[in-house]
Amino acid sequence: MLALNLKRARAQRGLSISELSRRSKIGKATLSQLESGTGNPTIETVFSLSRVLEVPISDLLDARPPAGLRVVRAQEVEVLSGEGVDLRPLQRIESGGGVFEVYDQQVRAGERRDSLGHVGVEHTIVQAGRLGVRVEGHDVELGPGDYVGFDATLPHGYTALDGTVRSVLLLQYRADQRLPPDAPHPVAGGCAPHTEA
């Protein structure tokens, strides 16, 4: 799904692979692999693409889920790993034109994950462990049952303070941050026209 959704988002923004590479600081070869379906993205790659393309992460990763009962088994979800963190996407919820993404987040023991920021509002509820959270230079420490929420466009980071931290991550996006479902798909083998922002 990432290959199709990335091409669609890039085409909608009118960006060439070269321009997307420049803005996201991701190599052209890596982007080409992702668009051909042969790449294996990290959390950092997906968050960077979300930030530059200004779309929810699930607009890049997900197909639209079927209606009705949905059970997500831990062993059936592909883990998105990166610097210090493993994310398992569990559910995309659409409501009032906005989007909410639910993730099982694990910050590995003694490690830190930093983000330059991305689209949306970030909500985290700690389930187990002690989590250090830094948002634009402000530090807080969370324990089991504690919650933090912040504007995800701000630079932020998570640190597992003593052992692995398990938490629920909820990303919230406004309706105007979504990739329209009728956005044009790029022509096979073609490239979107280059435009400057």
UniProtKB/TrEMBL annotation:
It comes from the Bacteria. Keywords: DNA-binding. One of its GO terms (molecular function) is DNA binding. InterPro entries: Cro/C1-type_HTH, Cupin_2, Lambda_DNA-bd_dom_sf, RmlC-like_jellyroll, RmlC_Cupin_sf, TransReg_Diox_bact_type. One of its GO terms (cellular component) is cytosol. CDD domains: cupin_XRE_C (cd02209), HTH_XRE (cd00093). Residues 6-60 form the HTH cro/C1-type domain. It holds the Pfam family Cupin_2. This is XRE family transcriptional regulator.
